[in-house]
């Protein structure tokens, strides 16, 4: 009988782990880059929450997602740090990338594509972290 006493504790631990894994997938945000727009162009995030940003370049040109202040104020997962160079994620046409991060500071952060005239043509937006 004593060996069954650990089953409730083990079940609770497994449930906690699965709840955390499900919460992480619920915080996935798709960000599409096209010729000359970001969709969505406004992101609303919460400090201390883990997000998976899924970037897809559906444009016919190379684009990037530049948000140096936002990335500096966030904790990027170690396995994704190499994808964020100097605060930007560069994507060739048809390429995608996933960045897992946790915003660490509240504020409003601008993002843009830094290629010549892309911002002026509409490739910019705002990240609001509460």
Structural write-up:
The chain is of the alpha+beta class and 130 residues long. It has one domain (27-129): Sandwich (Immunoglobulin-like), CATH 2.60.40.420. Helices cover 20% and strands 40% of the residues. It has a 5-stranded mixed beta sheet with strand order 2-1-4-8-6. Strands 3-10-9 form a 3-stranded mixed beta sheet. Strands 5-7 form a two-stranded antiparallel sheet. Strand 1 and strand 2 (37-39) form a beta hairpin. The longest helix has 21 residues, at 6-26.
Brief descriptors of the model:
single chain, 130 residues, alpha+beta, Immunoglobulin-like, 5-stranded mixed sheet, 3-stranded mixed sheet, 2 helices, 20% helix
Secondary structure layout plus pairing:
Elements: H1 6-26, E1 28-34, E2 37-39, E3 42-45, E4 51-57, E5 63-66, H2 68-72, E6 74-76, E7 88-91, E8 96-103, E9 107-112, E10 124-129
Parallel strand pairs: 1-4, 3-10
Antiparallel strand pairs: 1-2, 4-8, 5-7, 6-8, 9-10
Briefly, what CATH class? Mainly Beta
Tell me, what's the shape? globular
CATH topology: Immunoglobulin-like
Count of discrete domains? 1
**On the 0-100 scale, what is the average pLDDT?**
88
List the total number of helices: 2
**Beta strand %:** 35-45%
Helix content: 10-25%
Widest sheet: strand order? 2-1-4-8-6
Low-confidence stretches: 10-25
Biggest β-sheet description: 5 strands, mixed
Query: What is the CATH superfamily classification?
Result: Cupredoxins -  blue copper proteins
> How many extended strands?
10
The run of helices and strands is HEEEEEHEEEEE
- Architecture in CATH? Sandwich
